[in-house]
Amino acid sequence: MVTTYKHHIGGKWIRSFSGKTFMSINPANKAPVGKFQQGNRQDIDAAVRAATSAFKSWKDVPAPKRGEILLRAAQILRKRKEKFARIVTKEMGKVISEGRGDVQEAIDIFEYMAGEGRRLFGHTTPSELRNKFCMTFRQPLGVVGLITPWNFPIAIPAWKLAPALICGNSVIFKPSSDTPLCATKLVALLIEAGIPSGVLNLVTGSGNDVGMALVKHPSIRGISFTGSRTVGEKIVQYAGLKRVGLELGGKNPIIIMEDADLELAVEGVIWGGFGTTGQRCTAASRVIVHHKVKKQFEKRLLDHIKKLRVGDGIKKTTDVGPLINQKAVEKVHGYTLIGKQEGARLLHGGRFLNKKGFFYEPTVFSDVSPSMRIAQEEIFGPSISIIAVKDIKEAIDVCNRIEYGLSSSIYTNNIQNAFLAIEKIEAGITYVNASTIGSEVHLPFGGVKLTGNGTREAGIEGIYEFSETKTIYVDYSGKLQKAQIDDVMVR
Ligand code: UN1
């Protein structure tokens, strides 16, 4: 028996107007996980009506009180961490320890944003006139649409939900069709924690129908999206004057200099390249290595890779789980064929694994040149390209010869190399002597160039994404004072 789950609109769990459902499956064995509503524009219209009406009172709830609800959500999630982690692994495939990490990241952001309820800082500043007071404060946008990916099916929705809610927005949440169960469980938990009816609405279904209906809806004030660049570009095209936050692709480099601790660097490459089966926006996919240590690095890397156990993430012994679906396997394999055609040397992997689910071997190409497609395009799977360079200047140059700019890393024990990388790498995030993955929720997360449109998530900047600044002038002089005209001291 497969359970059928429903939309959550206006405080009620209801079916879609379409009368249709779709199935979510476990990528490790293709077993059904649940049936979900295939939403359409009518569902979005109903959700927008509910959210618009709920916004009127939610925006007036004192932010510290909204924070109490988020804190309660964090507490409940902490108690149910293991249960949620297992759902993540069952529906998305990541290994169970990373499933726990996914849930922990959500706990962290709920706690952090709960505290923001007592801050939400504006600022004060002197006026140029006497007896006049100047300040800013933050107000919600209104109804916002959150469109989230499958690779962090609890953490990324939480990254968006927590700041959106603490700022006083009401929300329509459209999760990826690969992980609707995680989304449904998260929404149910927030409702249990006390989010009032209509403030948080869940509509499942395809990006083309549900996602685009959200993006085009005239009553929605903001869209926050994490996913592919193609979809991000389409959102910008149709969103009109809405606030749009985008978190798109990456092709994240790890630089390894000749003075690096090679063992540490190898561990970082394995973790960044094959953790989450390479399915992170922040995954390491280019290894830019100093030619003097290339051979040694490759030998050590292969020693480690050979030990990786690919399988069902629910087993404690698994290091690398499945890819999300058949399309992903075909995409990753497509890039293996492209790499071979381009003349790169396949050092390891490059094959489907003959198992029940969507498994692919950890794959390494060497002798890759920076302009090859495998070194330019986001593969979103367990495939890395090794590029040799002669010095730090060339390393940074290769790093930057790319359309994206999300995460980056350098392994070096030379302080000049480290600071050159910090300053010159074109990316939103640079790690020194750590891999490209593992951001923390109280720091801003996001990228430059085609990785997005300049917004940042998490940290204080997560608040900026979901609020407007209001500027206030209070004149208590009791007379007409003219800025720029009265009281000019230097003429
Ligand atoms: C993503 O892949 O979009 O730094 C998010 C990391 C995680 C978040 C990744 N904390 O890899």
**What's the average pLDDT?**
97
Largest sheet: 7 strands, mixed
Q: What is the CATH topology descriptor of the largest domain?
A: Aldehyde Dehydrogenase, Chain A, domain 1
Q: Determine Rg (CA atoms, Å).
A: 24 Å
Using DSSP, what is the number of strands?
Answer: 19
Estimate nothing, just give the exact number of structural domains. 2
Q: Which class of the largest domain in CATH terms?
A: Alpha Beta
Strand content: 15-25%
Instruction: Please tally the helical runs, counting DSSP H or I stretches of 4 or more residues.
Output: 14
Poorly predicted sequence stretches spanning 5 or more consecutive residues: none
Helix content: 25-40%
In spatial order, strands of the major sheet run: 14-15-16-13-12-17-18
- Gross CATH architecture of the largest domain: 3-Layer(aba) Sandwich
Bound small molecules, by name, code or SMILES, are: 2-aminohexanedioic acid
Would you identify the CATH H-level superfamily of the largest domain?
A: Aldehyde Dehydrogenase, Chain A, domain 1
Which of globular, elongated, flat, extended, rod-shaped describes the shape? globular
Please identify the structural class as seen in this structure: alpha/beta
The rounded distance between the terminal residues' Cα atoms is: 83 Å
